[in-house]
Amino acid sequence: MFKFTSGQKVFNIGGAVVGGKPGDNPPLLIASMFHNKDRILADRKGNFDRPKAIELIKRQEDLSRSTGIPGMVAMVANTPDEARAYIDFFLENSAMPFGIDMWVAEQRAKATEYISKIGAQDRFLYNSITPWDKDVKGQVQKLKDLGIKHVVIQAFDDKDQSPAGRLKSLESILAQGADSFDSIIVDTSVMNLPATSLSLVANKLIKEKLGLPCGGAYSNGTHMWKECKETWGLDGFRAMDAVAQGMSSVLWSDFNFYGPIVTAPRIFPAVATAHILLSTLVYTETNGIAENKNLPIRKFFPDFIEKLLAGGARK
After folding, report:
1. CB neighbours (10 Å) of residue 158?
2. How far apart are the first and last CA of the chain?
C-alpha cells in the first residue's frame, strides 16, 4: 500500500523538506493568511492587525517545532501592491518559506516580479501553473527568467475527473516545459469532501509513475461543506476538518494546504497523530522506520520505536 517501485523525489523549499516515500518525511503544512473574512484584515490595501498576524505566525512556528512538521504560509492578495505589503511584512517576521495566492494570472505575475526583484526566490513557492492557463510555455519561460525555483502544478482534467485524468493533465503540463524547475509539487485538485478520495488516489498514481511530491488543498473539501456546522455545530465542524485533513495526510500526501492559519492548533496535532499512525503502518510493510529525527513518532514515542525495532512491541 505504501511501497513504490519508482524513486521518490525530495525537495527543499526554503528549508522545508517535502516529498519522498510515505513515512520518510512529515507532510508540509501550508497555511492561508489574509484570505476573505480573515479577521486580521482591515482592508484590501495592505492594512491589517500586525501584532495579531505575528502572533499567528509564531504560533505556527511553535507547532512546527514541537511536532516536527514543516510549515509555510500562503498569503492571499488581490493586487500586486497588496501582495508587496504582505511579502515585506512576512520576510521581516519569519524565516519560514511562503507563497502568494492570487487568482488573476496577470496580477500574480506582477507580484512574482517583486519576489525576483528582492531576491527571495529561495523561500518562495509559486502557486500555481494550472491546466486552465492559456500559455503554459510562456508562463514557464517568464518564471525561469525571474529565477523562480519552486512551483506548484495543479493537476485536473475537466473532461476526465478521475485520478487517471489528473495524471494525464499533469503530464501535459510537464511536457510544456514545466518539468524544468528545481522543485515541483503537484496539487491534485480537491473539489469537495467525498471527491477528496479521487485526489488521494491520484497522488498514489502520480507518485508511482513520476515520483513527484503530491498533495492538495484538503481544506477546500472540509470548508465547502457548509451544512456540517448546521448539523453538528462548530465543534462538529472542527472534528470533521481535523479528521479529514489528518486522514488525507496519511494517504500518499506530501503537503497540505490546510486552510486559515488560525486553525493551526488543531491541524498540526491532527496531522502529527495521523503521521504517527502512518509510521507504524509503513513499518508493517517495510520492517523499518525512517531515521528522520523530525518524524512525530520519533519525537513523541522514542521508547516504542526501540521496542518495535527490537520486536518487543509485537508481543
Report:
1. 9
2. 24
Q: How many domains does the chain have?
A: 1
One-letter identity of residue 309? L
Give per-residue pLDDT as tens, 110-136.
999 999 999 999 999 999 899 999 899
Q: How far apart are CA 184 and CA 215, in angstroms?
A: 11
> Helix (H, G, I), strand (E, B), or coil: what is residue 111?
helix
Q: Is residue 9 part of a domain?
A: no
Strand-pairing partners, residue 185, are 152
Q: Omega into 6 within 30° of 0, i.e. cis? A: no
Average pLDDT, the chain: 95
Rounded to the nearest angstrom, the gap between the alpha carbon of residue 173 and the centroid of all alpha carbons in its chain is 20
Decide: helix, strand or coil at residue 285.
helix
Residue 213 lies in a domain: yes
Q: For the packed helices 136-145 and 105-118, what is the interaxial angle rounded to 10 degrees?
A: 20
Q: How far apart are CA 71 and CA 65, in angstroms?
A: 9
Report whether 27 contacts 256 (CB < 8 A).
Answer: yes
List CB contacts of 245: < 8 A, sequence separation 6 or more. 218, 219, 222, 256, 258, 267, 270, 271
CATH of the domain at 202: 3.20.20.20
Percent of the chain with pLDDT over 90: 92
Asked if the structure places residue 4 within a domain, the reply is no
Cα–Cα separations (whole angstroms), residue 74 to 32, 97, 210: 5, 9, 26
2, part of any domain: no
- Quote the CA–CA distance of 202 and 210 in Å, as a whole number: 12
Amino acid (1-letter code) at residue 87? I
Strands 214-216 and 98-101 come out as: unpaired
> What secondary structure letter does DSSP report for 41?
B
| The three three-digit cell numbers of residue 129, written as one number | 501553473
Q: Which amino acid is at 78?
A: N
CB atoms < 10 A from the CB of 5, how many? 7
Using the structure block, give the residue that is written with the C-alpha cell 527543499: 12
How far, in Å, CA of 26 to CA of 295, rounded?
Answer: 6
In which domain, by residue range, is 103 found? 17-314
